[in-house]
Ferredoxin--NAD(P)(+) reductase fdr
Amino acid sequence: MYELQVTSSEGVNEVDTGSDTSPDSGAGSGSDKGIVIVGGGLAAARTAEQLRRAGYAGRLTIVSDEVHLPYDRPPLSKEVLRKEVDDVALKPREWYDEKDITLRLGSAATGLDTVAQTLTLADGTVLGYDELVIATGLVPRRIPTFPDIEGIRVLRSYDECMALRTHASAATRAVVVGGGFIGCEVAASLRGLGVAVVLVEPQPTPLASVLGEQIGQLVARMHRDEGVDVRTGMGVAEVRGDGHVDTVVLTDGTELQADLVVVGIGSHPATGWLDGSGVKVDNGVICDEAGRTSAPNVWALGDVASWRDPMGHQVRVEHWSNVADQARVVVPAMLGREAPSNVVVPYFWSDQYDVKIQCLGEPHATDIVHLVEDDGRRFLAYYERDGVLVGVVGGAMPGKVMKVRSKIAAGAPISEVLESPESG
Ligand SMILES: Cc1cc2nc3c(=O)[nH]c(=O)nc-3n(C[C@H](O)[C@H](O)[C@H](O)COP(=O)(O)OP(=O)(O)OC[C@H]3O[C@@H](n4cnc5c(N)ncnc54)[C@H](O)[C@@H]3O)c2cc1C
C-alpha cells in the first residue's frame, strides 16, 4: 500500500570508498569507512542516535532515497493528512551536524557487494563500509489492474501524503481499498476532511487478520457511526475514469461514484536493491535475534527486517516502537557489546477519530478473544492462547491496557485478568 519516492540527488557524487582499506577495520576501530545506514526513516535515525549515544565516534553516514530529513510516518495518515501538522522530521538538520552524521539524501542504494564491502548508489557513487545497516522499510502494494489515471493514491511517504492531501481537498467521494490500520486511519482522516468514504475490505471485518473479527466488528461499528459506508466480504473489480477516477466497481457489481481511491492493501519489504548481494531475504531481510544478516558486517532492523524470536521463528514487525526496541539491541551487538536482556512487550497503536486503539503483546486473529468492556467506542479485550494471556487491545483505555504489561511479559494465565480485570 506504500510507495517509495526515488528523488533527485541533493547529496554528493564522488566515489568514496574511504581511505582505510584494511578489511578487518571494525566499527569501533575508527576506520574512515565507518558505518553506513541505508534508509532514511525511523530505523535509520534511531540507529544513528543509539550509535552516538553509545560513544561510537567513527564515520556515520545515512543514505536515503528520499530528499527529506528522516521523518515520522504515523502522523501521515492522521494529523498531516488532516492538515493539522506539516513538519514531521524526527530531528532538525542541526542535530545531524552536531552529531557529525553525513546525510546523503535523494540517493537510492542500488547494489551491495558484501565481499568488497561496498554500497553502490543510483548516481554511481560507491561507498565503502565497515558495518552496513539495512533500514529500507517497505514498498506499498499497488493493484496492477487499476488504470494509470489521476486520483488513485497509496500512502507510505511524506510526498505521497502531500499528493493524497491535495487530492482529498478537492474530493467529495473516496473509496478506501483495504481495511487494515492504514486504510482505517485514512478513512477516519478523510471523514474529518468532510469527504464521503466507502471502505472496502475483502475479509468479514476491518482489521480481521490482525485483531480478529470480534474487535474488527467494533472497529467497523465505529466507522459506520462516523458515516463511513463499510463494505466487507468484497473487493474492487475495476476502477474507471477518463484521465481521472470517476467510478469504482465492486466485486458484487455495485458501481460507486468516486473521485479518489486510496489503496491500503499492505506492503512488501524494500529489498530489491539487495538482489545479487548474497544477503538472505525471505519476506524481509533474514536476521538473527540481534539483527545480524547472513552477510558479514551487515545488519538490518525496522520494517524491512525479519528477526529470529526466542522461539526460533522469523518475525517481521511493521510497528513504530519495535524500531527503537531493535535499535537498542543492534547497536551494542554491532559494537561488540552486551545487548540489553530485558523482555520487551511489543506495543503499537492506531488513532481513528477520537479513539486511540492500543495493542500490547502479540494478539493474533486466531487467539481466543475475551471482550471484557465495550461501551460503544471504548473497549478492552484480552487475548488468550493455550490458557496464557498473550495480548491486550483497548480502544480509548490507555490505563487498562498498560496495566497488564507485566502479566503479558510474565506469560500469566488468562485467569489472572479474567478473575480480576481491574487489578491488572
Ligand atoms: C502512514 C503510516 C502510518 C503509520 N502509523 C503507525 C501507528 O499509528 N502506529 C505504529 O505503531 N506504527 C505506525 N506506522 C508504522 C511505522 O511508521 C513504521 O513501523 C516505521 O516507520 C518503520 O520505520 P523504518 O525506518 O523501518 O521504515 P521507513 O520509515 O519506511 O523508512 C525506510 C526508509 O528507507 C528509504 N529507502 C527505501 N529503499 C531505499 C534504497 N534502496 N536506498 C535508500 N533509501 C531507501 C525509504 O524511502 C524510507 O525513507 C505507520 C506507517 C505508515 C506508513
Summary: The longest strand covers residues 368-375. Residues 2, 4, 38-44, 63-66, 73-74, 76-77, 108-109, 135-138, 155-156, 182, 270, 273, 302-304, 318-320, 323, 348-350 surround flavin-adenine dinucleotide (CB under 6 Å). The longest helix spans residues 320-334.
